[in-house]
Amino acid sequence: MQHSDMHLDTGAQAHAPRTTVRGAMRITEMARQLNVTPRALRYYEDIGLIAVDRTRGGVRLYGPEAREQLKLIVALRRANIPLDRVKDALDAGAQVHRDMLLERLATLDAERETLLESLSRLGGDAVSGSRPQAA
Asked: Does the pLDDT at position 89 exceed 50?
């Protein structure tokens, strides 16, 4: 469920008019969409990876820009990119995101080769990567 006309506390004086954010999502909706926990989203905010708007009542609201940034954060984390490097990636451009993922892929490829070599030594089929049968 999206809240198309959520009102924000802009941080201005209490008598100032409220700002409207179209298409804003609450934290549970955003977490569900990204398949992460609300706690993860709060943590990303706590450590400064993302800034979110809030209603006067303190409810977090994720607009389209925040959603896109969170999609990137979650994608990099799922690739096991450490949070300090995720922060660097957010400060940089799309090429850095791509480079980080290619670097991670190279690391995983090297790990895979090492595992296949170990498996081969144990009698498994290193070419197909099949597992040796348990006795």
From this structure: yes
CB 87 within 8 A of CB 81: no
pTM of model > 0.85:
no
Cα gap 22→125, rounded to integer Å:
56
Coil, helix or strand for 75?
helix
CA angle, corner 44, sides to 40 and 47, nearest 5?
Answer: 130
Q: Is 102 left (phi over 0), alpha (psi -120 to 50) or beta?
A: alpha
N residues, the chain: 135
Tokens of 45: 């905010």
pLDDT in tens, 25-35: 999 999 999 99
